[in-house]
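The instructor's notes for this session suggest beginning with a concrete chain rather than abstract definitions. Hand out the sequence below and ask the class to guess, before any prediction is shown, which regions might be ordered.
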Amino acid sequence: MSETLASEGGVTAGRAGADPRRWWALAVLSLATLMVVLDATVVNVALPQAQNDLHISVANRQWVVTAYTLPFGGLLLLGGRIADYSGRKRAFLIGLAGFAVASAIGGAATGQSMLFAARALQGTFAALLAPASLSLLNTTFTDRRERATAFGVYGAVLGAGSAVGLLAGGLLTNYLDWRWCLYINIPIAAVAFFGAFPLIRESRATGVTRYDAPGALLITAGLALLVYGFAEAADGGWDSGGTVGSLVAGGVLIIAFVAVQLRTRYPLLPLHVVLNRNRGGAFLSSLLIFLAMMGMFLFQTYYLQGVLGYSALKTGLALLPLTLVVVVGAGVVTALMRVVPPRTIITVSFLVCAVALVWFSRIGADTSYVSHVLGPEIVVGLGMAGILVPATNLALLGVGGEDSGVASGLVSAAQQVGGSIGTALLNTIAAEATANYLSSHPVTDPALGGLTMAEGAVHGYSVGFLWAAAFFAAGALVSLVLVRASSKETAGAGMATT
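After discussion, reveal the predicted structure:
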């Protein structure tokens, strides 16, 4: 199969030379990516208000988040393959339009079922939009240095998106209404949609464009069951029938998917995409950083609001330094990638993040934001930039044009599945640690009951931070063993000429 670029807007897309509109295209792609990433956290801050407004039970409130991540994580590979063959710009535009419509439905929700359905619809269109966006980035920038800069911007958006979501959620919830955490997507999607028409070239893979229907069904169901199982563990426990059954069934379906990919003539995921050691290291790094990162944001939010008494808005502002450091750090990392091998950058950055999480674990019921949160926040922001930028670049190293979308989808799938696992796993670990602390520290003086509860919660967060540090350390080992690409190779990473 080969790669073709369509001629649009009076510019011959197949001609030699760079697209003169490529930097504007980067702005559009980054805006759309930011919308998708922040939507995973922007609703979290508004959840208590939405829960009260729509009378959502405590048992069902997790579905406001899970209904989004289930289809997002489960459909990403299929979304990437559809983008490859139907046209990446077309997939990008359909994803934007669908995401906006789903956001409007969610904002107008009159009950929990309507909100859950809208969130699921958002996740479905995000699974088409996210891989199309990264794939378009890969086909738009062909110059080595410019490609490195473009991936630096993309990595900064990924790293900052979650914290921006918390800040945006706090602002919108405090000054407008929780529904605006969904409505805000409509103008963002509209700007990106109408900007994409003149600024982004169409591209698609040509040749045999058959879809691997059995493979699509198996991987979608398998990933969805895994995400569902890890989400259920937070409420039902790791030994519940729903958790164990979902995880086992998901694992079996993914093994079956691999077997199908080895035998089918037109695989949904050509295994050479993931078995390459550099790309495999990048995919595992993406999974591990989001696994640790989402748990980190969860505990930071609980600590700031539940222990220090911060409002939703103040919590968002407290996380703003991390966002700024990621953005600035991404530029520094982009420059370093021209002379420093990616293995060195990623490994050191994972270790930096691990150190920051150990620092976070030193929080107490009577410690302050300045003394115990701000410092590690800045350190972990630097580390996140050092992982996300080169890992995203490596994930597309040497990928042929016909596999660009599916490789992009695999990056996003690793991030979504990692985030879902991290949220469920680390939350469960923290809850168990809190329960054990409270059982071993019985309240004998009623006047000290509130302090003991706060100390128990903080102990749980500290244990969660230490586990997150362990996952960051595991990421350092993965990158050290698997990544072998040179700085020269990653400077020109991405779509190979086919």
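Then share the key points. Strands lie at 2-5, 203-206, 399-400, 495-496. The radius of gyration is 22 Å.
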